[in-house]
Amino acid sequence: MFFDRPEAGSRALLVHIEQRDSELATSSELKELAESASLQAVGSILSNRRFPHPATFLGQGKVQEIAELIPTVKAELVIIDHELSPSQQRNLETELACRVLDRTGLILEIFSQRARTYEGKLQVELAQLAHASTRLVKGWTHLDLQRGGSGRAGGTSAGLTGTGETQLEVDQRLLAVRTRRITNRLDKVRRQRSQNRRSRKRSDIKTVSLAGYTNAGKSTLFNRLCESEVWEADQLFATLDPTLRRLSIPVIGKIVLSDTVGFIRQLPHSLVEAFRATLEEVTAADLILHVVDVAADSRSERIVQVNEVFDEIGANKVPKLMVYNKIDAGGSTPRLERDASGKPFKVWVSAQTGEGLDLLVEAMGELLADELVETQITLQPHEGNIRAKLFALGAVLREDTDHDGLIRMDLRIDQSDLARLQVK
Predict the structure, then answer these.
(1) Pairing of strands 160-161, 165-166
(2) pTM
(3) Spans of all domains in the chain
(4) For the domain bounded by 11-111, which CATH number is listed?
(5) What is the pLDDT of residues 183-197, one digit of tens each?
(6) N or C: where does the chain have the smaller number of CB atoms within 10 Å of the terminal CB?
């Protein structure tokens, strides 16, 4: 017997699960997620159940309370701020006679709306397929383009299709075929990205990735630094598709800056796996700018959540610079903090106003340089090409030319760049 799900709409009743071990688990975050999915929150219920009910997660009393509220607020959808098992989701939809969406399904819905590029759409669909594989409910028959006969003209027995397959088996087969097809396409994308990264390495071009909790202002910072026009908005997961731009910074010269998808509490594992091709831009970076919303509540826990994703994707060993953004809203001042060894490790900026971005660029240059040295060189009049390259690197502190045309330059430069220029 198949389970036909109730029709979904845009009017959502939010069920927030209180979690005492997390300051980030708030009803406001759930509301932001719902609004980011273009849903209208028409009501909210709090559940502080310590242990999930095996059948419905919430328990019979809370299920009854939700069932009574649904017609009052005219809800067309119930969103549970926690991951549900397939059976829990089916049982809830049966008892409530209303479509139920868990936290994972809600985030997947946001991602499906935000994907713009070919790669992004493939990654989102792969995550959706992984999520759907455990809760097949008559959803994949539209992919079955061929029907096998059973010995009679198009005849099938009840509950069976093709040569004796049940509908569930057909759905599983179709989903597996589609998953393999998308995985193969993403493998091609991954190989292309890997080839591009090797090309940048051969050209000695440094790569910096922006990462952080969703809505920390990464895209605004990216646009400020690169004078770009990546879409930015005050909402969760405003940027989904990765964007790369070239940027010139002092001492280092040309680098590649990448803007990636934001992280969030309980980021579905299927999304991490599906976006591995994109997240490899973070793991392969020479430096990660961990962007933090300084004005956000529980920013310390947000940092912990992002670091957990870094561990999951294998980026925990990549050098990082903490960028505390939105100081215009948080009442802080721009400043650069250094660790005990004198290296930059934290910078306070406002991507919105541009305050502190000079300090950020300075810190990036120091951290990306293999070994900074301050020295003085003398160039012959015909060595203008070397002079031009030094200025392009932003390495010139002072320059004098004597009456013989000799050029004396005080430099602050990466040791490897200096060695390469002197060889030439």
Answers:
(1) antiparallel
(2) 0.71
(3) 11-111, 195-368, 372-423
(4) 3.40.50.11060
(5) 888 888 778 877 777
(6) N
